[in-house]
Amino acid sequence: MDIPGSPNVIAKVAVNDAGAEAWVLRLEEEARLYCNELRHLQGRVVPRFFGFYTGTRQRVFSRWDVAPAACMILEDCGDSLVDETLRAYLEQLPRSLKIEVMKNVLRLHKEAGCKHGELELENFVMRGNDLNSVRLIDFKYARVGHRCKYGDRCARAHCKELDRLEDVLKIFKCGHRYATIIR
After folding, report:
1. What is the tens place of the pLDDT at every residue in 98-131?
2. Which of 35, 46, 96, 135 falls between 20 and 30 A from 9, CA-CA?
3. pTM for the whole thing?
4. Which top-level group of life is the source organism from (predicted)?
């Protein structure tokens, strides 16, 4: 149901029977990240966070045994930039889109002190062709306390995550210059 003025949301759910406890804890850590380090990036680098809920549910093949379950509600920020069928066409993504992706990761590192941990293009979403709507999602492997020195003159030696992303995006023809793109 579409309610005018209300945001579209998605629910990220952890309910699988085998290892459900681990997935629930990981989802809880991700929710904590949204409430703390990512709070000031919501709506511009990452989706807005609306809540985290826990409970139990009956296991699939048992009448009496219950498993933990959790649900995180986030703003729906559009579709993934690529899927498996488009992976071969990465070089065809517009340069402006690749730069916007890099800017968001730089903001994540600098403003939140957070390393994403799984920078795949599937973890970037966008509404239509609006470059201002690019958002980074899926923080299950994220780590806080990252002290990225990307502003240093010799930034390449300081952040493997940014180097890896730049290698994938191939934004710059002559070496890594990501340190200057959001100044």
Report:
1. 899 999 999 999 999 999 999 888 899 998 888 8
2. 96
3. 0.82
4. Eukaryota
